[in-house]
Design a protein that fits this description.
The chain has 339 residues and is α+β, with helices and mostly antiparallel strands. The chain has 5 helices and 14 strands. Strand 6 and strand 7 form a beta hairpin. The protein is elongated, with a radius of gyration of 35 Å.
Amino acid sequence: MSDYFYCLCTGLGSAAVSAIFYAVYKKRETAIRSLKDVTETEIGPKLMSTLMACENRSIPYGVIRGEARPLKNSEVIRSPYVSDVTGVIQQIKTREHKSEWSRTTRLWHDLERTISSACTTVPFSLYNNGVLVKVMDPLSAEDLQLKVIHDKFEPVSSSVAESLVQWASGDKTKGFQTIERMLPVGTTLTGIGEITLTDDGIKIGPPKSGLTYYLSQLTLDAIIRQLQSGKRVWKILSAIFAFGSGILFLVSLYFYFKRRREMQQELEFIRRMRTEVNVLDEGEVLDQQEACVICMDRQRNVVILECGHFCCCVECAHRVNNCPVCRRSIARLVPTFTS
């Protein structure tokens, strides 16, 4: 039965992975279909008139493209490492580089871990043709790529005594890496989301319909091509794992029916070969040491393998999956006969 359960569990795992890959594929397919039907409008007076004509002054899913600018020139983020660089989104991450001794491989392995990460944003808009569109909740947008403007590794200098202590403990710090990413002012972005005209001006944010919200440096056509290329990969992976799970299910069924047939043959053989010596006469009292530990009515007449216990009758042995004495799995049964 171990082969049956192994193949069944592996097949279920493969089917679950296939379902996950297929869900990603369907999500990309839905995103591509929605992007092909999206309303593309240039930022400017035309966008204002289009929103005025729309119901609720809102485009449920639209595309605009413009330069990222802070709403107030005084509210910009300045890089602490690079002069004359300003942005509207900043991410600073510090990573520790070290080596650890592995007792398993008996080797030193290089590891990295993030010890601090901070992200700062200021209100900004997409600007074009003299019109501003305020960007709402930019960190929740997909495909928002920040530019690396600073990447520096500072090694740690250790004394001889500190090096010996680190060597003995199996943990040596090599240095710290500081990475600063930023969305610089003036970066041209494609915004895809819900565009709304309010008393405070035009805004773009995550769609209420649940469609994907994008802020990308790519154009609309480039985003669609990127999704299409990835969609094929997920579809192929889903088909491969689905095919593998089908094969494993068939193999598990083969092992199941094979084992079931063997157990039926064993039972028929034992019942056919049992002698009248093993059957109690009417009124005969069965010795407790010879009685089946499960039913206490029939005589012990089968040995359980692989544990080798002689503790029950064949009828009860076929009703359980584990030995009643040691709880080990029953691999097969060997009949015994008294004479």
